[in-house]
Amino acid sequence: MLQAIGGGLNGLIDGFAHLHWSNPIMIVVGCVLLYLGIKKNFEPLLLVPIGFGCILVNIPLAGLMERGGFLKVIYDAGIMTELFPLLIFVGIGAMTDFGPLLEDPKIFLLGAAGQFGIFLTLVLALALGFKQLDAVAIGIIGACDGPTAIYVTSKYAPHLLAAVSVAAYSYMSLVPVIQPPIMRLLTTEEERRINMGTVKRSVSKTTKIMFPLVVTVIGGLIAPKGLPLLGTIMLGNLMKESGAVSRLTKASENEIANIVTLLLGIAIGATMDGRVFLRGETLIILALGFLAICLDTVCGVLFGKVMKVVTRGKVNPLIGAAGISAYPMSARVVQREGQKYDPKNFLLMHAMGANTGGQVGSVMAAAVMLSVLRGMGII
Amino acid sequence: MDNWTFGITMIVVGMGGTLLTLWILSLIMSLLKMLFPYQEGEE
């Protein structure tokens, strides 16, 4: 009997006995993510489930990420099949108004320039010794677009998924901190004061409905490997703009997006097992991800300066910084920076145009990247 | 394929391809805006 009691008591301390040194550290990391989400309001919809998933997976013997464990079931069902990021994209498409972009379609080019950091970081990762597909996954952090980063990484470098997705979402939420110093460094005070006037409403409903179809067909033909990404975001947008399926649109932007965000977040958190996550490689990936977003901002602002010259001073280069996918934070940063130098300058709608251009640009950059890889016979 | 060739190809074709694709899209959307102009009072 004493032996049975001893065995029973042993069962209660087994969890402590099996703690790996990395587990307590990762539990603290999970708590930091929860703190950022709850207290600082940085992407709480994602950081809260990611942080909690991180805590869950670092408690030993629970077997949550072992065969049959509930986190493993969610991970296999939604991440390994790429279903979750794609369903999120339907919701993003249903929530996004591409109107400001379509008011001035040349702004699309800023959405392209804002993705250059992806490719520059890819080359840096190669120079640091990462394998080619790993470098692709690291570069994609520069898309500043969580679902795209998860889609590409889960497909081609699943062992980097935790580091890449944490970097993508953390830096996306830190855009208001990362971007302003770069914007100020690369522009003159005179440039920051450029007033682009008000955005006139000039896009018909027909054009708005045709936009997702054009992007899907043209983008899909040029970069077919990225069609799942393009197709889902554009399906969501078509439903929104057509107005014909309001129930589906509402479900996509509310119930579906909410449920998938929860499952996606907790599944990503579940990849943050300390024994896998706490490596020097993770720190390098986090640093490269940071650099990727800085480079995106640099290229966006510099391209904005080129557009300023080409348009003879009509474009404020600050809006180039919004050519990334962090919507709408980046556009708000541009508005705030512009108003610091001229309180009567309203850049928000122009920046929103660049920002939605960045959303299309990030998906297109990933699609182009995948198709180039296929063309080279790498995937 | 060596890393140097891979990196340069990704920069040239990847960045160029992204820019070119979005430029084509901007041209098509500008054309569509002309073909289907916004009319006052349109919802």
Write up what this structure looks like.
The complex is a heterodimer of chains A (379) and B (43). With 379 residues, chain A is mainly alpha-helical. Helices cover 73% and strands 0% of the residues of chain A. The model of chain A has no long low-confidence stretch (mean pLDDT 92). The model of chain B has no long low-confidence stretch (mean pLDDT 91). The A-B interface holds A 102, 105-109, 111-113, 115-116, 118-120, 122-123, 126-127, 132, 135-136, 201-207, 210-211, 214-215, 218-219, 222-223, 357, 360-361, 364-365, 368-369, 371-372, 375-376, 378 and B 1, 3, 6-7, 9-11, 13-15, 17-19, 21-30, 32-33, 36-39, 42-43.
Summarize the structure.
The complex is a heterodimer of chains A (379) and B (43). Chain A has 379 residues and is mostly helical.
The low-confidence parts of chain A are none
Average pLDDT of chain A, rounded to a whole number, is 92
Which band does the percent of strand residues of chain B land in?
A: under 5%
Question: Can you give the helix content of chain A as a percent range?
Answer: over 70%
Cα gyration radius of chain A (Å): 22 Å
How many helix segments of chain B?
Answer: 1
